[in-house]
Amino acid sequence: MAATWKIESMDCKANTVLGSNYIITVHWSYGDPDIVPDRIWGGVNFKVNEENTNFIPFEQVTEEMVWDWIWASGEVDKTKIEEQWVGYANTILNPIIVKPKLPWLP
Do 17 and 50 form a contact (C-beta atoms < 8 A)? Predict the structure, then answer.
């Protein structure tokens, strides 16, 4: 399985003392649509810290930075989510209960 993490979108506060487009929520997903159509979805909220001396203008933010913030937040258990998705995918690919066609029907 080649499931991947993906940043789906980001909500930003339009204007702050530090600048515009201050990221306050990052929406992410995890999965592999080639294996199972559903992904696990989530989000991480960040508070505006107007005393932040490490503010990075929105245009300079990279995907790697955003993932670092997500993992550092402690709100997302990467291992647990990956394990949940594998369990879900296995259930879809190898169902316990099936509905075969009735044997007397053409």
Answer: yes
Within 10 angstroms of residue 3's Cβ, the number of other Cβ atoms is 20
d(CA 30, CA 8): 10
Q: Would you say how long the chain is, in residues?
A: 106
Strand partners, 40: 30
At which residue do the structure tokens 């993490």 appear? 5
* Residue 23, number of CB atoms within 10 A of its CB: 19
Buried b or exposed e, range 53-72, using 16+ CB within 10 angstroms: eeeeeeeeeeeeebbeebee
How distant, in Å, are the alpha carbons of 2, 52, 87 from that of 46?
A: 29, 12, 30
5-39 pLDDT, tens digit per residue, is 999 999 998 988 877 888 999 999 999 988 888 89
Residue written as token pair 């995907």: 63
Phi-psi map region of 74: left, alpha, beta (phi>0 left; psi -120 to 50 alpha): left
